[in-house]
Design goal:
The chain is α/β, with parallel strands linked by helices and about 350 residues long. The protein is built from twelve helices and twelve strands.
Length: about 350
């Protein structure tokens, strides 16, 4: 799970299971870290497993991996015990989760097993997104704020990609449960179009905007560590500048930061209750409501207070003071003489590898 989610939403990584119901994706985002061998396609073309079976096998496989860490030096026994009960399922490992035809049913299976759900999507599949009647937290990734930049940054396989994305924005606005936009910030590429981002926010009306600096994964054909990766301060400055625009300043405010993930959380002001931020989710409350058979669960029904250490401007910049941070000194670091390539000028297309299209 994204490390910043502990501070932003109160989700501990040791109680979280990551799962990919679809290894395939319909985009080739320049910032994606997935294995290059995973398929890119416009439609599902594989055997469709039963969602109940998937939910069972996912938990069993997750616990099998967790149990290999028993008695390993450094593993805290209290957290190892807590990890035996999966509390959250993060559908974001690789691929586009909404490509799996029974995604809505899989989400319900997780809730039936007392597991909260986070579903990520690139916004290319609005119809399956519409079918998600009850999700703990729905996250829509914003690869770029305009059609031209989306083409060269998100690199979707669909010709009508922008229409699909904007339709997903409208669907997000109508969801009663927690929603986020996740802006992947690439320095000197998609970090200056503030008014376009404001238009996306005003159309989708999310509960949160997660501004995440792109992470250089060590091997990529598109990103340059020196020129394209923002610092945490640059990410924080971008979020602050975005919140000065008219619509943003009326409804949103920078709430949290997580410096060591270089991520900033902008929250809707409705989550500041009696002067205190409530960006954390009450997972037990959500599961209780879900298992009551509620057709609609509203965001405000499962909020919890955000601790001071997670707030923007805190002494640890979002690092939990109960944790111990280990920093390893790099020795004999190798430097490439050629260096990785740089993104092309804004708006120019990158060459796509061959992919299956419907």
């Amino acid at each position: 799970i994204n490390a910043e989610y502990m501070g932003f939403y109160g989700m501990s990584s040791y109680e979280t299971m990551e799962m990919s119901p679809s290894l395939a994706c319909n985009s080739r985002c320049v910032f994606c870290w997935k294995h290059p061998g995973t398929p890119t396609t416009a439609q599902w073309q594989w055997q469709t497993d039963d969602p109940k079976l998937l939910a069972h096998l996912a938990v069993a496989s997750h616990l099998s991996m967790i149990n290999t860490m028993k008695d390993v030096q450094g593993v805290r026994p209290d957290r190892f015990r807590k990890a035996q009960a999966v509390k959250y399922c993060d559908f974001s490992l690789v691929g586009e989760s909404l490509m799996y035809p029974n995604m809505a049913q899989l989400v319900q299976e997780m809730h039936a097993n007392r597991i909260c759900t986070l579903v990520y999507t690139s916004g290319m599949l609005p119809q399956p997104m519409q079918k998600l009647s009850s999700v703990t937290h729905l996250v829509l990734t914003v690869a770029a704020p305009s059609a031209q930049l989306m083409r060269s940054t998100g690199r979707p396989v669909f010709e009508d990609y922008w229409e699909r994305f904007t339709a997903s924005l409208d669907i997000l606005a109508a969801k009663p449960y927690r929603t986020s936009l996740r802006v992947i910030l690439i320095k000197s590429w998609n970090d200056t179009q503030l008014s376009e981002y404001e238009e996306i926010v005003s159309r989708s009306m999310p509960d949160f905007i997660e501004v995440k600096a792109v992470i250089y994964c060590g091997r990529t054909d598109a990103l340059d560590l020196t020129n394209n990766v923002p610092s945490h301060q640059e990410t924080l400055d971008f979020a602050g500048q975005l919140c000065t625009l008219p619509y943003m300043s009326k409804y949103y405010e920078v709430a949290c930061e997580h410096e060591h993930s270089s991520c900033v959380l902008i929250s809707h002001k409705k989550f500041k209750i009696n002067g205190r931020w409530h960006t954390w989710l009450d997972s037990d409350r959500f599961i209780y409501l879900a298992q009551q058979g509620r057709a609609v669960i509203k965001t405000e029904e499962y909020v919890a207070p955000t601790p001071d250490w997670a707030l923007v401007g805190s002494a640890g910049q979002g690092f939990d003071p109960e944790e111990v941070r280990h920093k390893r000194k790099r020795r004999n670091a190798r430097q490439s003489t050629a260096g990785p390539p740089v993104l092309p000028p804004n708006g120019e297309d990158l060459d796509l590898e061959d992919c299956d299209e419907a």
